[in-house]
Amino acid sequence: MKALVGNALGSGFDFEYVDIAAPMGREVLVKGIEEGAEVLVGGEGHPSGFDAGYFVKTTVFVNVRNDMTFAQEEIFGPVLCVIVYDTEEEAIRIANDTKYGLHAFVSGSDIQRARRVASRMLAGRVPINGMLDDPDAPWGGFKYSGIGREFGRYGIEAFLETRAILE
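Predicted structure:
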């Protein structure tokens, strides 16, 4: 099975290249390599056909430690840092050991265990076994990833003026 990667404005693509809105995105990738992470797929440079802008290749890093700079940053791009763990508790500790908390992800064959782990993740959204979206589900982060919510009931409540009348 092949995945078709290309410009999201086209049709039929499975993945798209992402323009990381600032040079910092590239700098974080370079820093990861300097700190000892190994590039499994992708890496530095522009994707083929994208010579301008801040586009980066879909990249997977292995041999990543949680104290590495890019493991601690919110990288808005197609970048995955693989961090190995031994126990469920260690995995949760690693996942929550960041100042950010916009999105997390849990994958597993034991759905009860996956739900238990997801409930302990300090992130605004935690899909289990897939990148699901529900327009009625709130969107927003924890910690430095922001406060407040968009979408669903919680998003609408941000535009309401709640009043208490007391006697």
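Summary: The first strand starts at residue 5 and ends at 6.
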